[in-house]
Design goal:
Elements (H helix, E strand, L loop, with lengths): L4 H15 L3 E6 L6 H11 L3 E6 L11 H29 L3 E5 L6 H9 L3 E6 L20 E4 L4 H9 L4 E3 L15 H4 L4 E6 L4 H12 L6 E4 L9 H6 L7 H9 L1 E6 L17 H7 L4 E4 L4 H4 L7 E3 L2 H13 L3
Parallel strand pairs: 1-2, 1-3, 3-4, 4-5, 5-6, 7-8, 7-9, 9-10, 10-11
Helix pairs in contact: 7-12
Length: 331
């Protein structure tokens, strides 16, 4: 079935709520805890047949270091070819009603063209601030989709301004109840709690905020997980950085053993009209039973009540003050 625009979205939603069973191919990263895996599981729980094709099944996992980077660069063309060949084979074999692409790294435009020619309805679930700056993401793929779902309110206009695409809808982040749930008990684990933690990718804005905390007179232990923190120029921030990503059950566990979980947002990137207003952590942290201190935005306050469900701050000074207050008033 080839369906477009608003009509396509309506038919897709009707199908998803089980008025009809769909054959769905979901393409993205498939490690436990990835948003793509949660999306595929959600479709299955609603009674649909799902083929999950993971990019990480075709590309070697990165462990850092020069040798690893060189190896990935040499193997990338072969891995990308094998990945797209497998996707084409799955489309030919399954003849899906719907193909859902999570972000779209390493997916070639001609692969999506073949999916469209098969009669499938194509949609993209895009979770990032900007469509630019991601290695392996060809922005030409966006014109191939019948519809794009963006987790950014400003993303609707950004996709139109940058690519002339009008079939775009805002769909906020969520959480996966099989991953993001309370699973930490201090008595069982026998571990000390972490005063303050942040889980996410490095950026200059996040480094600035964490640097202000490190430079304060607060007696605290800070733990930072995520990628690219080796880029930090702040020595104290680098000392707190674990220099690896924490995912899945251990992500939820880290949230549970942190007294204060920071909800820091990505700043504006090239190709975006503004920076993050909410992020996946906005929902992962409360779902995992964590106390959240989030950057104050109008959007986050549409979902949570400040001072009752979450705490908020605006800027370095208020961040330091709020951390000091809550560490001294744990109740």
């Amino acid at each position: 079935m080839v369906i477009n625009g608003l009509t396509g979205v309506v038919k897709f939603i009707i199908g998803v709520i089980r008025l009809q069973a769909l054959k769905i191919i979901v393409i993205g990263e498939c490690w436990h805890g990835s948003d793509c895996t949660g999306l595929a599981r959600g479709f299955r729980e609603l009674g649909h047949a799902v083929e999950l094709i993971g990019t990480d099944q075709f590309f070697p996992m990165s462990i850092g270091g020069v040798r690893d980077k060189i190896l990935r660069r040499l193997l990338s063309p072969y891995c990308k070819g094998s990945f797209n060949e497998y996707v084409l084979g799955a489309i030919d074999r399954i003849r899906p009603d719907v193909v859902v692409v999570f972000k779209g790294n390493y997916v070639e435009p001609q692969t999506l063209g073949s999916a469209l020619a098969s009669g499938a309805w194509l949609c993209n679930f895009y979770p990032d601030v900007s469509a630019y700056g991601h290695p392996g993401l060809d922005v030409d793929i966006f014109s191939k989709f019948n519809h794009i779902f963006t987790t950014k309110t400003f993303g609707v206009n950004d996709f139109f301004d940058k690519f002339g695409l009008a079939d775009v809808s805002f769909l906020p982040h969520g959480f996966d109840p099989l991953v993001h749930r309370p699973i930490f008990s201090e008595e069982i684990e026998g571990e000390e709690l972490i005063d303050v933690s942040f889980i996410g990718t490095w950026s200059p804005h996040k480094e600035l905020l964490l640097g202000a905390l490190e430079a304060s007179s607060i007696k605290q232990n800070i733990c930072i997980w995520g990628s690219q923190w080796e880029k930090s120029k702040n020595n104290e921030v680098r000392k707190s950085a674990q220099l690896y990503a924490i995912t899945g059950d251990y992500y939820a566990q880290a949230i549970g053993k942190s007294k204060i979980n920071l909800g820091l947002l990505s700043e504006r990137r090239s190709g975006a009209s503004t920076g993050d207003q909410i992020t996946s952590r906005t929902f992962h942290i409360p779902a995992s039973g964590g106390f959240m201190l989030h950057e104050r935005t109008e959007e986050v306050l549409e979902y949570f009540e400040e001072g009752k469900e979450i705490a908020c701050f605006d800027g370095e000074s208020e961040l330091v003050d709020k951390v000091a207050y809550y560490l001294n008033n744990e109740e």
